[in-house]
Amino acid sequence: MTDTRTDPIVVAGAGHVGLIAAIAIGQAFDNVISLGTIQGGNDKRTTALMMPAITFLQKIGLWEAIEPHAAPITTMRILDGTNRLIRSPAVTFEASEINESAFGYNIPNVTLTSVLSDALKQSSIRHVAASASHYHATDGAIAVEASDGSFYTANIVVAADGRSSLAREAAGISARTWSYNQTAIVLSFSHSREHHDISTEFHTEQGPFTQVPLAGKRSSLVWVTAPAHAVELLELDRNQLATRVEERMQSMLGAVTIDVDPQSWPLSGLVPTSFSRNRVFLAGESAHVFPPIGAQGLNLGVRDVETLLETLPNDGTDLGAASVISTYNRKRRPDIIARTGAVDALNRSLLSDLLPVQMVRSGSLELLRTFSPLRSFVMREGLRPGSGFRLPLKRAVH
Ligand SMILES: Cc1cc2nc3c(=O)[nH]c(=O)nc-3n(C[C@H](O)[C@H](O)[C@H](O)COP(=O)(O)OP(=O)(O)OC[C@H]3O[C@@H](n4cnc5c(N)ncnc54)[C@H](O)[C@@H]3O)c2cc1C
Fold first, then answer.
1. Taking the domains of the chain in order of start, what are their residue ranges?
2. pTM value > 0.85
3. What is the fold, at CATH topology level, of the domain defined by 9-63+108-177+269-347?
């Protein structure tokens, strides 16, 4: 075991989580290597980041460059777009109800990638544009071979290498995976009416159809549907697709013009048996994959990075010590398991035609609509785990 760390911290993967991890860890620790190819030029998605993630980006100095391209989300609405016997009431969540100016901001993925890669270039972090090809645990370290022939003896590895993580496998962490019979179609569109910073999620029999505001009279869309329907939508021309989007939204935003062509993402889920083992710490999709419902994925990835920073001792001692590994596992498990389970249950409840399931869903939404303390609790918990309890506890104490 090393008493004074000289070996580098290797962050494997240069997606959004890997880049955020490398930049944030590089501000707190010397000798950080970012290993991975920066892609994303053709990613048409946008990402809704909630206020806690925005606060973290502010803290590490990235928000100023992102903000001009970001659109606030001040209201979130859930509408039942099904033709079922039991239909759920509309529920509206206002950020002002929990004394927030916004729930978060919607940001084009290409903007995130370019701001993060610029920040990496301007930092002292060494970036190696190659993939990790082999890991080998040695005494008190982990050897990393890269596809360009370079070789590193790392103190720890941050596995931000996505859902098929090689680092996770090399650490001996297995993962349970499953797929959904659903595909997400993403696109962006302009509309003739103002969105007033409102995001609307229509619950349909095939999954949620979620409009999220962008700057000006523009919005992004995540349309989760059956794979065959997704194929049909992708074959439409822009005008035909615009008509489908407008119909689905009941012309709520007026006339629709598609201005970013659709892309499709098959949906799947993944949960590993552990979040850290043998000097490897999982962050982002190596640690959790679930459908894009309620904008949770990257938000959870940012919390992985925040927790890792809080957990790693900054006194020169071994970052891969058993106590550090177990603390990270203990801190990440409840949040990740709860989010994965909640998103999965909500998604499956939409797909189920069973009357009792529909009754429970409808009853829960009615309770949310009419009982404002519960609504506040859900809004706070949606932003950050544990924060829903804070306000009622404060009230009870005073
Ligand atoms: C349609 C859709 C909409 C979404 N919307 C939202 C949203 O609004 N809000 C939200 O919070 N989340 C959202 N998400 C989730 C979010 O996109 C993911 O959580 C996030 O992209 C995960 O980032 P990552 O860096 O962990 O993984 P990835 O983006 O997969 O990055 C992993 C990187 O590692 C690289 N890599 C793989 N193997 C190696 C190796 N051996 N060595 C080096 N590098 C390697 C890969 O090439 C890749 O670049 C959405 C997801 C989808 C599908």
1. 9-63+108-177+269-347
2. yes
3. FAD/NAD(P)-binding domain (3.50.50)
Task: Please state the φ and ψ torsions of residue 381, each to the nearest 5 degrees.
Answer: -65, -35
Write out pLDDT tens, residues 85-120.
556 667 888 999 888 899 999 999 999 999 999 999
- Give distance in angstroms: CA of 249 to centre of ligand 1: 28
Strands lying side by side in the sheet with 132-138: 132-138, 141-146, 151-154
296 CB near ligand 1 (under 6 Å): yes
Give the pLDDT confidence of 271-314 residue by residue, as tens digits: 999 999 999 999 999 999 999 987 789 999 999 999 999 999 98
343 Cβ inside 6 Å of ligand 1: no
> For residue 260, what are the β-bridge partners?
188
Categorise residue 244: left if φ over 0, alpha if ψ from -120 to 50, beta otherwise: alpha
Identity (one letter) of the amino acid at 264? S
**310 Cβ partners below 8 Å, 6+ apart?**
331
